[in-house]
Amino acid sequence: MEDPQLPLLEGCLKGSRIAFEELVKYFQPKVFALSLKFLWHPEDAEDATQEILIKVISNLGNFRKESKLTTWVYRIATNHLINTKKSNLELKHVNFRKVEEELTKTNVENHDSSERTKYLALHVQTACTHAILLCLTRSYRIAFILGEVFQVSSSEGAWIMDISESNFRKRLSRARKQMDEFLGKQCGLSSASNPCKCQNRIAYSQKSKRINAYLELSEKMKEKGTWKIKPLLDESKLVRKAAEIYHSGPDFETKKDILLNIKTVIETKQWNLLN
């Protein structure tokens, strides 16, 4: 099995600091993207990302090359996320009915076409669609994210989740159906005739502070010069399936210096990983 990340693995196992840093830099955005979509709140996702990467680093010697290193990392991440404590939103038992009720009450007509409005609407889109993922059970949610957003194969998804291929396909199919049905009848990104519009929820999202953490990520990326402007999905065009919405969002980076934090943990625990 060809795996372009094996040289990094071998370097880490030999104690190379350079390989260690490159491995963390390579996997950090992937793990953070998975965690953010699964947990919704950026700070929770940052904490999970650090915890997952520490597990990855501390278990590199146990990697048996049964899969690509990336797939193995996703397996560790998936197991961690499914078993992590429930977030505040999850504890409120978010479901499609409750989300539908909230969307109905929080739309305020907004015809402003300024760049600032578009910028805020983009963050509403991201925060809202990530929150909708919480309506899925954890096993369906991770299957949807892996299969539809990260587009892993059925065999990879099954190995990551430690289930059969048929079970993975079943969970993905059911999750996809639930997401497509809900967004198809509610979200303006799916159809211009649907009631919910991103720009119409800006006022509510600002008042409830639902987008604050996402805005903080963007502002931090602007300071670093890594923010890439992504246009808001065109609400006049039909989105064929829910996954298209998740492919369009910004590629957020963490605010925390996770690499530095992991180095500190390694040195504190005195693991014999680095020379």
Describe the structure.
With 275 residues, the chain is mainly alpha-helical. Helix 3 packs across helix 4, helix 3 crosses helix 14 and helix 4 packs across helix 9. The longest helix is centred in the N-terminal third of the chain and has 23 residues. The radius of gyration is 20 Å and the shape is globular.
- Strand fraction equals under 5%
Output mean pLDDT: 89
- Sheet with most strands: none
Overall structural class, as computed from helix and strand content, comes to: mainly alpha
Which term fits the overall shape?
Answer: globular
Oligomer: single chain
What is the C-alpha radius of gyration, as a whole number of Å?
20 Å
Helix content: 55-70%
Q: Tally of extended strands?
A: 0
State the separation between the terminal residues, measured CA to CA: 29 Å
Helix count equals 14
Low-confidence stretches: none
- The H-and-E topology, N to C, reads as HHHHHHHHHHHHHH
In short:
This protein is an all-alpha fold and 275 residues long.
Present the secondary structure layout.
Blueprint: H1 6-13, H2 17-39, H3 42-58, H4 69-83, H5 88-91, H6 96-105, H7 115-133, H8 138-149, H9 154-161, H10 165-186, H11 202-207, H12 212-224, H13 243-247, H14 258-269
Helix pairs in contact: 1-2, 2-3, 2-4, 3-4, 3-14, 4-9, 8-10, 9-10
